[in-house]
Amino acid sequence: MQGYNVAVVGATGVVGTEMIKVLEETKFPVAKLLPLASERSAGSRIEYNGENVKVELLTEESFKGIHIALFSAGSSVSEKYAPIAAASGAVVIDNTSFFRMDPNVPLVVPEVNAHDVRKHQGIIANPNCSTAQMVLPLLPIHEHFKIKRVVVSTYQATSGAGKEAMDEMLNQTISIVNGNGPTKPKKFTKQIAFNVIPHIDSFLENGFTKEEMKMTNETKKIFGDDSIEVVANCVRVPAFIGHSEALNIETEKPFDIEKVRELIAGVPNVRVMDDVATNTYPTPADCVETNDTLVGRIRRDFSVPNGIALFCVSNNLRKGAAFNAVQIAFELVNQELI
Ligand SMILES: NC(=O)c1ccc[n+]([C@@H]2O[C@H](COP(=O)([O-])OP(=O)(O)OC[C@H]3O[C@@H](n4cnc5c(N)ncnc54)[C@H](OP(=O)(O)O)[C@@H]3O)[C@@H](O)[C@H]2O)c1
């Protein structure tokens, strides 16, 4: 076979745009690319491999002859169209939260559980952006020292809420800088420019947000281990791209902190940036052009017998969405599942 017919649902969004870039950069064997969107952008053009490709309207007929369908157009679109795409013979890789906790849908971060891809029944879920980056430094710590509990505080960029959210931050910043005060929040509940908001996704009865509970539940599913306790505090900050996370990890077994640093550096697609003598640690500005998850400030957390503290940063549109999705597509090819 020369390649695969790939549909990108939500091709004009921030994640969809990045997906098309990552397909190109990773040289995924695409025979035909089909960008799909709503009537708002159907008929517009996108660039792919130097070609100008027309964006088509998403319909129930869109998936005929499609091998892989990458979805990032929101949960309600996935709810309706992912089963239609799967029934048409495509394997769906879904970026929304809709199918993530469905027991019949594998939730995959390839560095951790690539083997779960083969359990798919037509749909594979991509995790929440904050979870995808967090499980990378956790992987060797859990393998070697068994994690008991993780406390994570996030500092999440506005692109995590889509294109309109980024525009809201930009326009609000310009308005304030021009002396006109903040524009009225629409995508966010409060002013985001020059501010931080401790509220991502909706609140649940237990007082946590959905975003926070995604980090707890998805981590257990990806590791296939319900014993890992994760408690999250998710906060939106006025960065455009790149989620940051401060982690405090408690392990069952004792460890040598230098060994922990070495193990994290050995995880594929992770780069350790950790030398406080030279102010070397990651910030969101460092992750914009990379698929790597950047880890620094690795140190012993003295507040518990076996504790590790670290700071990790990743491009939420890449490892948190598009890159992870394309990695899953490569697994389908490499494991000869397609
Ligand atoms: N941003 C992130 O970091 C991130 C990470 C992981 C997962 N996700 C998930 O990915 C999804 C998209 O996020 P985003 O940030 O890319 O949002 P976005 O920038 O707002 O883009 C939304 C995309 O979906 C399309 N769309 C919306 N309604 C549609 C419909 N009824 N039929 C067909 N296409 C439709 C839009 O097309 P039009 O141009 O036609 O409106 C656009 O291409 C969300 O479910 C989000 O939770 C986002």
Walk me through the structure:
This protein is of the alpha/beta class. The chain has two domains: 4-127 and 321-334, NAD(P)-binding Rossmann-like Domain (Rossmann fold); 131-316, Dihydrodipicolinate Reductase, domain 2. Helices cover 30% and strands 23% of the residues. It has helices at 14-25, 75-87, 110-113, 129-145, 163-177, 210-223, 257-265, 318-334, and strands spanning 4-9, 30-37, 45-48, 51-54, 56-57, 68-71, 91-94, 123-125, 147-155, 229-233, 243-251, 270-272, 293-300, 307-314. A six-stranded parallel sheet has the order 5-2-1-6-7-8, sandwiched between helices. Strands 10-9-11-14-13-12 form a six-stranded mixed sheet. A two-stranded antiparallel ribbon has the order 3-4. The longest helix is centred in the middle third of the chain and has 17 residues, at 129-145. The protein is globular, with a radius of gyration of 20 Å. The structure holds NADP nicotinamide-adenine-dinucleotide phosphate. NADP nicotinamide-adenine-dinucleotide phosphate (NAP) binds next to helix 1, helix 2 and helix 8.
